[in-house]
């Protein structure tokens, strides 16, 4: 999959404002047909990075290449390959959905019949002649994607596409994104929610304090981060059993969290039972993103 | 580029800015027309023909005197011609007519109302995109930033022109029911006074329609300058209120400044000082020495070009944060 030329490539992107380094030498490649997750807490530099990808912010250092075009020197050619939603899907509220799509179709120089195609793709043809001001956030999000699809770009950049959507909306969005990737489009998705990224993305990069901490396929990254959660009757006695067996753990009310694989849990449960500790449940648990950061940053606190 | 101007025009109309401008023009013109109509009614009982004939006779007596100097004689003859024209065409001099009302509108509205309306149009042409968050979409399309700003400037100039044109047309349409509609050919006198004293040799006699065209042409030029400065303010400020407020403050401050501190002559380099071009053309002395028509036109041009250069420099380079 990764043998093809990248559709989008960020090289050593850095943004310094005053004395603060907001984004620090961020590099990654986005390949055709993949969904790439960009994961990080709010304030980690996700949005600044995205704004640099699409030319809204000029990088202090580094370069962005889209479909082989450097965005600084060949802005028009590069942007012709990209559709994006940066932060919120803001469109002109005082115009109808159709007028908005026609507005951006004119900027691209594509036929206005394209508006029907893209509106149909996101399933909102029926609301197209209403003013955007009357749309729900979910509808605006879809219209934003419809707009991004104008001109058949090869790269789609979506900033927190699930933000503010209800569970059904999030699911629809996910299906839409997977569908676009199946059509061969490269999709860059940012999020601060691990679960979302896990369900949607092929590869992921984790950004924190403006630096990429880890990057890799979702499966590898998440597998390395599994822990077991034990719901037990006597937490203290269970704790001493864990200590005896040399298993590191954390306590939280009536639960213990141990950084072990699911396969290693069975002998531990047997040991607990032998020591008269009631075990109500034992299940693998995804680490929260925050814990993952704690882990990755060597215990440095996340703020 | 036509596509971009199409977009900007659509947005400007949809934001109802132009509707507001037309609404304000209609309201103000209706009130002023009615005032003129009241004035007309009060004058109706006077025998204006006898008055006018008497004034002509008086001027002719003055002309026959031996010691009348040449320039004075010229202005007397001009005045006699003007009064005679009114008599011949059965028009009462100084009587408000719709054409005179149209002509007067350029002067009266030129230094505050029209610049204000243009800044209402222009101040949010960029800042509203930022306030509504649509700038990040507009600027990530495959169109260079300078082209986007050019389309906005062009649209603003088009609508400034339309504002002035609508002002003139509305002044005629609204005042016609109240005031006599004839009189486009009436002679007018205008002279650009470079000093505070009246200089008759500078007086020009033109038919009213020609005089009005010149006044509107000058006003148009002044408005394009205002529009260019409004564009800069709209680029600099993140909110429309900041942009409109700054423009309003500078228009009013400039007016107050020229009245209150005429000694501070450096104020003649402010664009506000040169803004009432139509007034200066008519013969109103500019507030500071050395403000010839050429000076005013150059000054406004320099302001406009500087504002446009600054607007482009900022707009094409700025980082767009949330």
Describe the structure.
The complex is a heterodimer of chains A (303) and B (322). Chain A has 303 residues and is α/β, with parallel strands linked by helices. Chain A has helices at residues 46-53, 75-79, 97-108, 114-121, 137-149, 167-182, 194-200, 218-223, 235-244, 265-274, 289-296; strands spanning 8-17, 20-30, 35-39, 61-66, 69-70, 82-85, 155-159, 186-191, 203-208, 211-217, 226-232, 249-252, 255-258, 279-286. Chain A has two domains: 8-223, P-loop containing nucleotide triphosphate hydrolases (Rossmann fold, 3-Layer(aba) Sandwich); 226-286, Alpha-Beta Plaits. Chain A has a six-stranded mixed beta sheet with strand order 6-7-8-3-9-10, with helices on both faces. Chain A has a four-stranded antiparallel beta sheet with strand order 2-1-4-5. Chain A starts with 7 loop residues before the first strand and ends in a 7-residue tail after the last helix. Chain B has 322 residues and is an all-alpha fold. Chain B has one domain (2-39, 97-317). Chain B has a two-stranded antiparallel sheet with strand order 1-2. The radius of gyration of chain B is 23 Å and the shape is elongated. Classes of the chains: A alpha/beta (303), B mainly alpha (322). Chains A and B meet through helix 2 and helix 3 of A and helix 1 and helix 8 of B.
């Amino acid at each position: 999959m990764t043998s093809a030329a990248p559709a989008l490539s960020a090289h050593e992107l850095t943004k310094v404002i005053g004395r603060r380094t907001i984004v620090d030498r961020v590099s990654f490649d986005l390949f055709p047909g993949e969904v790439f997750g960009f994961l990080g807490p709010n304030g980690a530099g996700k949005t600044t990075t995205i704004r640099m990808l699409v030319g809204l912010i000029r990088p202090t250092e580094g370069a962005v290449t889209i479909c082989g075009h450097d965005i600084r020197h060949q802005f028009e050619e590069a942007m012709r390959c990209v559709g994006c939603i940066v932060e919120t899907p803001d469109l002109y509220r005082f115009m109808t959905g159709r007028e908005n799509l026609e507005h951006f179709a004119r900027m691209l120089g594509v036929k206005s019949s394209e508006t029907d195609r893209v509106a149909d793709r996101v399933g909102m043809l029926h609301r197209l002649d209403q003013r955007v001001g009357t749309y729900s956030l979910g509808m605006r999000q879809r219209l934003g994607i419809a707009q991004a699809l104008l001109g058949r770009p090869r790269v789609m950049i979506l900033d927190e596409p699930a933000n503010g959507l209800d569970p059904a909306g999030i699911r629809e969005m996910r299906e839409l994104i997977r569908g676009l990737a199946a059509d061969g489009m490269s999709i860059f998705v940012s999020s601060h929610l691990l679960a979302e990224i896990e369900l949607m993305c092929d590869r992921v990069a984790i950004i924190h304090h403006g630096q990429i901490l880890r990057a890799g396929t979702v499966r590898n990254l998440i597998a390395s981060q599994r822990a077991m959660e034990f719901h037990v009757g006597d937490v203290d006695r269970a704790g001493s059993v864990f200590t005896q067996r040399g298993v590191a753990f954390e306590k939280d009310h009536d639960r213990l969290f141990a950084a072990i694989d699911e396969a290693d849990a069975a002998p531990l449960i047997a040991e607990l039972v032998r020591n008269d500790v009631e075990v109500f449940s034992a299940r693998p648990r995804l680490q929260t993103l925050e814990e993952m950061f704690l882990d990755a940053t060597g215990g440095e606190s996340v703020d | 580029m036509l596509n971009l101007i199409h977009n900007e025009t659509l947005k400007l109309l949809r934001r109802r800015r132009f509707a507001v401008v037309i609404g304000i023009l209609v309201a103000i013109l209706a009130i002023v027309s009615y005032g003129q109509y009241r004035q007309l009614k009060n004058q109706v009982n006077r025998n204006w023909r006898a008055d006018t004939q008497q004034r002509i006779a008086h001027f002719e007596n003055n002309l026959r005197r031996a010691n009348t100097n040449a320039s004075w004689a010229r202005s007397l003859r001009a005045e006699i011609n003007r009064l005679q024209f009114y008599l011949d065409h059965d028009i009462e001099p100084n009587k408000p007519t719709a054409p005179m009302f149209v002509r007067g509108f350029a002067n009266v509205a030129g230094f505050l109302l029209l610049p204000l309306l243009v800044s209402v149009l222009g101040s949010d042409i960029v800042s509203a995109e930022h306030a509504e968050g649509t700038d990040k979409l507009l600027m990530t399309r495959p169109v260079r930033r300078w082209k986007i700003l050019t389309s906005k400037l062009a649209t603003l100039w088009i609508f400034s022109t339309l504002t002035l044109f609508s002002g003139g047309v509305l002044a005629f349409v609204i005042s016609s029911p109240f005031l006599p509609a004839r009189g486009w050919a009436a002679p007018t006198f205008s002279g650009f006074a470079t000093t505070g004293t009246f200089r008759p040799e500078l007086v020009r006699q033109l038919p009213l329609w020609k005089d009005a065209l010149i006044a509107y042409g000058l006003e148009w030029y002044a408005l394009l300058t205002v529009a260019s400065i409004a564009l800069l303010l709209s680029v600099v400020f993140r909110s429309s209120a900041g942009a409109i407020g700054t423009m309003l403050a500078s228009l009013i401050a400039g007016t107050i400044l020229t009245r209150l501190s005429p000694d501070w002559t450096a104020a003649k380099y402010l664009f506000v000082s040169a803004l009432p071009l139509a007034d200066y053309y008519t013969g109103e002395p500019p507030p500071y020495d050395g403000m010839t028509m050429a000076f005013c036109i150059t000054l406004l041009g320099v302001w406009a070009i500087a504002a446009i250069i600054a607007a482009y420099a900022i707009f094409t380079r700025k980082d767009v944060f949330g």
